[in-house]
Design goal:
Blueprint (H helix, E strand, L loop, with lengths): L1 H7 L18 H22 L16 E7 L2 E6 L6 E5 L1 H8 L14 E6 L3 E6 L8 E5 L3 E4 H6 L2 H13 L3 H8 L6 H8 L1 E4 L8 E5 L7 E2 L5 E6 L2 E6 L8 E4 L8 H12 L6 H4 L3 H26 L12 H13 L7 H13 L3 H18 L7 H9 L9 H5 L1
Parallel strand pairs: 3-7, 10-13
Antiparallel strand pairs: 1-2, 2-3, 4-5, 5-13, 6-12, 7-9, 8-9, 11-12
Helix pairs in contact: 10-11, 11-12, 12-13, 13-14
Bound molecules: S-adenosylmethionine.
The site of S-adenosylmethionine has 18 residues, from strand 5, helix 7 and strand 10.
Protein name: SET domain-containing protein
Organism: Parathielavia hyrcaniae
Keywords: Signal
Length: 408
């Protein structure tokens, strides 16, 4: 399950991520985290050298310009007509893949469904203009600018700024105007403060990029966000994870969700450079903040216990002592903590556990919740989606039905 979920969320939150596996949305964190990757990349680059063709060997579809302004094997490729327009600073191979990838199928909410306003202590933010329902897609976008990650780190600052300015100037006027409204004074600052991590070529060398989505980046951080984001290749999707009434702010989490209060503050200060003023951090009275940390600790302990029991002897059947109500308790803790953005694995395991113990009604209920949560958090390509649909429809016909009872 863990593997499946991680494979399909190339850059998305998962409760299975460890605390040191940092956010897709934290450029400074990425920089520290990236050091080893960069060393590896340089080693790999040597091995792959013979395989790389020159950037101009890749024939891009019509309306694409480039390669131009090359540094080593990285060049600028631009297209004014691709959706909102796109500038890529990358290899010929990745430009070719990106140029041939589909434009997101839905733009998301109608523009009147939300508005931008100033939030005390946070700058601008986005707000609901009508009730936004759980499961609604807020935005589905491709990046308007994507820069290969090691190039962003390695380029001489002046050359980098000049290159980024050219890339931005090549965007259509309306897109450029949205780009410029992102926080940050220089183009480099804007990339640093607003980018999301994209992996554009699987595990291949040079795959890691920083992508800019100017509308998405108007969303502020909240430790208990009402919006979840997931990224698959070029497509960035934001989805509502609970109903949001008109006037409420639309927020995502920039950091790992199940983190203790003090650690969240430290991460946001160190990696993002701001003191978090979300309600969970700034206005929660100490007893409530302590209770919240207590629930996070309970979640971690229960998850470890369940994982150990279920995977004992390397098989889901093997563990002694697993009880279905353990996962019911876990779901309760997640909901009490308003961690609505991270429910898919918990519902999936709860459904499986109840099915394994032959509890038809609860297996159905949790499987139906798992289906909805997987669609929100992972998308329609989620590996467990079909299995959970089958479990919700016919628990007795599912592979997991009664196996725990039989194993006893
Ligand atoms: C990607 S931008 C979000 C939009 C930004 N507020 C704007 O005006 O465009 C990230 C920046 O917003 C501010 N911010 C976001 N969430 C915040 C929070 N929970 N508390 C305080 N500042 C926050 C910080 O200045 C942060 O560096």
């Amino acid at each position: 399950l863990q593997e499946n979920i991680e494979k399909h969320t190339t850059c998305s939150w998962s409760p299975f991520l460890r605390e040191d596996q940092l956010s897709c949305a934290a450029p400074k964190a990425k920089r520290q985290h990236e050091t080893n990757v960069r060393d590896n990349t340089q080693k790999l680059e040597k091995n792959y050298d013979g395989l790389y063709q020159s950037p101009s060997d890749y024939k891009l579809p019509p309306f694409w310009k480039g390669p131009e302004k090359c540094f080593r094997k990285f060049c600028l490729f631009t297209n004014q007509d691709h959706g909102e327009g796109m500038s890529l600073i990358t290899t010929g191979r990745i430009a070719y893949l990106a140029a041939n990838s589909p434009i997101p199928s839905t733009p998301g909410l109608e523009p009147t469904a939300y508005y931008e306003a100033e939030v005390p202590g946070k700058g601008a933010g986005l707000f609901a203009n009508r009730t936004i329902r759980k499961g609604e897609i807020i935005f589905q976008r491709h990046p308007v600018l994507a820069v290969q990650f090691t190039l962003h780190l390695d380029l001489d600052p002046q050359a980098r700024e000049e290159l980024y300015q050219v890339a931005i100037n090549r965007l259509p006027e309306a897109t450029r105007a949205r780009f410029v409204r992102q926080i940050g004074t220089t183009a480099y600052d804007k990339v640093e403060q607003n980018a999301f991590r994209l992996f554009l070529d699987g595990d291949h060398t040079h795959s890691s990029h920083l992508g800019l989505f100017p509308e998405v980046s108007k969303m502020n951080h909240d430790c208990r966000p009402n919006i979840h984001y997931r990224i698959a290749n070029l497509t960035h999707t934001t989805v509502a994870v609970r109903d949001t009434p008109p006037g409420d702010e639309l927020t995502v989490s920039y950091i790992y969700g199940k983190t203790l209060h003090a650690d969240r503050q430290t991460q946001l200060r160190n990696y993002w450079g701001f003191n978090c003023t979300c309600s969970q951090c700034s206005t929660l009275p100490t007893p409530k903040a302590d209770a919240s940390d207590g629930r996070i600790r309970q979640i971690r302990a229960l998850e470890n216990e369940i994982e150990t029991l279920l995977t004992a002897q390397g098989t889901i059947k093997g563990g002694e002592g697993a009880r279905p109500e353990m996962n019911g308790a876990l779901v309760g803790l997640y909901l009490a903590e308003r961690l609505d953005a991270y429910l898919a694995p918990t519902y999936t395991r709860a459904a499986l556990l109840h099915s394994m113990f032959g509890d038809e009604e609860r297996a159905r209920v949790f499987a139906a919740e798992a289906v909805a949560a997987l669609e929100r958090e992972v998308g329609l390509m989620a590996m467990d989606l079909e299995s959970m649909r089958r479990l919700a429809g016919d628990p007795r016909g599912h592979w997991s039905w009664g196996i725990r009872v039989a194993a006893n």
